[in-house]
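Sample intake sheet
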Amino acid sequence: MQNIGVKLKEYFDSKGITQKEIADSLGVSKAYVNALFNGRNSFGKEQAEKWVNLYGLSKSWLLTGEGDMLVSSNADVMNENTTYSVPLLPISAQGGSLNDFVVSVKNSECEKVISPIKGVDYAITVSGESMSPEYPSGSQVLIKKINERAFIDWGRVYVLDTCNGTVIKRLFPSDAAGCVVCKSINPEYPSFEVSMEDVYGVYRVLMCMSMK
């Protein structure tokens, strides 16, 4: 367990996330988090599940130390006898700019698609060319909701559900308090800022699926 704790501490230190912030997010004491990092405590199944949901860590890695630390790794790719069905949202993540479109979606109303990885909450279709060629228009991305108040892994691609619509962008910190900078992969599209007060949900992109 010592090795797991050391790797966890290194990971969160690299993200600038303090033990107090972790403790507050999980509803536990700072001493408990410190004991996990130092190997004095080990993860139980229930506590591991909370870390999985909040931080995208692998449950099997937290319990055994085997495999990869993050759920989006190749360790979570399904074998030939395993499938994961996830809801395909009936809206598009805009690859351009905010599109003044708001919609409430129920899972029961969604078409289902097959995901080759586990830990996915939704699939959503990409619209627009600003994220091409890595995320071409018409492709589907598999996304997982995160707790953005805990931390955001800057520079990675996320889907933002905002009051002005849904966008897929790389996220970076902003000089303006309470805002994030949204950047496109295609340099022809300008960056813009979004206030987190206008964001209903943040979803980490785990995988992109497109027709070749």
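Comment: The chain has two domains: 2-75, 84-209. The chain is about 20% helix and 30% strand.
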